[in-house]
Amino acid sequence: MTDYQGLYEFSPRLLELAEKAEQNCREIFRQTEEIQAYNEAKVLKAFSDNRVSAAHLVGTTGYGYDDAGRDNLDRVFAQAFGAEDALVRHQFVSGTHTLSTALFGVLRTGDTVVSVTGAPYDTMEEVIGIRGGKTGSLAEFGVHYRQIELLPDGTPNFAAIEEAAKSAKMIYIQRSRGYSLRPSLRVETIGEIAAAAKRGNPDVIVFVDNCYGEFVEKREPTEVGADLMAGSLIKNPGGGIAPTGGYIAGREDLVELCGYRATCPGIGRESGCTQDQNRGLYLGFFHAPSAVANAVKTSCFACALFAELGCRTTPRFDEPRTDIIAAIELGSPERLCAFCRGIQAGSPVDSFVTPEPWAMPGYSDEVIMAAGAFTMGASLELSADGPLREPYSVWVQGGLTYNTGKLGILLAAQAMEGC
Ligand SMILES: *Cc1c(COP(=O)(O)O)cnc(C)c1O
Q1: Could you tell me which of 379, 216, 191, 184 has the C-alpha nearest to residue 292?
Q2: What is the CATH classification number for the domain harbouring 402?
Q3: Residue of the nearest CA to atom 5 in ligand 1?
């Protein structure tokens, strides 16, 4: 049992349960470390095959034409993700912005996009135009949207997907659960969805919201039939080091189109200076498989511990992972808020502040968030959030190092004692 003597005071009972939880995680930890080793090799190989050099780590100013570091980082990401091409830019302000750029880059008036994993992530509803006012959504530009729900057991409705693809330009897949209690999709399953969609329509574009998924498995969606995917650099592929940004990866012709949307028609990806961002983006990507594995282990530990405490968790602690998120059903607003206070107290930055629920723009219920991160809002760093609605689930993610992540989880459990 870890000795925190003189540092942190935990009850003997909590430490005993933590010991048991960690024992239960032995096998899943072993699997996670095996995936980590493979993905670290994948990334190292992408660096060396693309001859990354010190010159690539310095950036440009102004227009940023011929920014060798930027262009090579695109190749490194593409290779590591088994994609033809990639667009990695610190100018993407968030995951939503990156996903939005990809959708607007590829879709045109009259096209239909079909989400085949039910409702998309909350903020994407306004991009698509399911919700929100006249803000320039896809719907306002005449892009049609339809949705196919997952089956009651959480699996995709392959027959409906094949049928819908016939009249669709794009099939939209969300890998991670987001703020829902549905299971996250395995990369293998994403491959099966892509195959079903292409049976219905060989030209359909299979798009994946890959947020929170990168490096959790050995393969990425672009290695199993997805045409395009996107994600945030303040989540997995930034390795806890990239201070901002996003990436789009996939088919060369589609990535090219996204470049025109990211800047403007005609100029596309050729412009966009990197200032002093290149080094952090390279370093972050290099660290990403390791940071992701630590986050996965923190997540497994959290699920194992809270299962011991009688909570339902999605996924179960020993289920194979495809993203870094775990949802824990806490059952009351008091317990949800206490949990978040504990996570906050276990953060390296702002450990002394008290998180409160607030009406966050883009979300339909009040949300409470705990995060004390080096990068504001970065959720590869230990963080927890949840909307104040039944069943008062908290979504926990991150942990740049397992030992500090575990401490945050222990403090959360301790804060809930007596609630
Ligand atoms: C985080 C996330 C996004 C985008 O969120 P941002 O906060 O804009 O970075 C989109 N989809 C999923 C599934 C996510 O987890």
Answers
A1: 216
A2: 3.90.1150.60
A3: 95
Chain center to CA of 390: 24
One domain, residues 189 and 260: yes
Q: How far apart (Å, rounded) are the C-alpha atoms in residues 237 and 313?
A: 25
Partners of residue 89 on adjacent β-strands: 246
Whether 274 and 293 map to the same domain: the answer is: no
Residue among 174, 232, 395 to mutate when testing ligand 1 (max atoms within 8 A of CB)? 232
Centre of ligand 1 to C-alpha 107, Å, is 20
Residue nearest atom 13 in ligand 1 by C-alpha distance? 178
pLDDT of residue 360: 80
**CA-nearest residue, atom 3 of ligand 1:** 95
> What mean pLDDT is predicted for residues 289-293?
98
Which structural domain range is residue 371 located in? Answer: 12-40+289-416
- Look up the CATH number of the domain holding residue 111: 3.40.640.10
Percentage of the chain modeled with pLDDT above 70? 99
Specify the higher pLDDT residue, 359 or 174.
174
- Ligand 1 center from residue 228 Cα (angstroms): 16
The backbone torsions φ and ψ at residue 87, rounded to the nearest 5 degrees and listed phi first, read: -130, 105
Pocket of ligand 1 (CB under 6 A): 94-96, 99, 121, 123, 174, 176, 178, 209, 211-212, 232
- Taken as a whole, the chain contains a residue count of 419
Query: What tokens appear for 315 in the block?
Result: 């996924």
Return mean pLDDT, the chain. Answer: 96
Q: List the one residue out of 30, 4, 40 whose CA is nearest residue 300.
A: 30
Q: Give residue 402's identity as a one-letter amino acid code.
A: Y
User: Ligand 1 test: best mutation among 96, 244, 383, most atoms within 8 Å of CB?
Assistant: 96
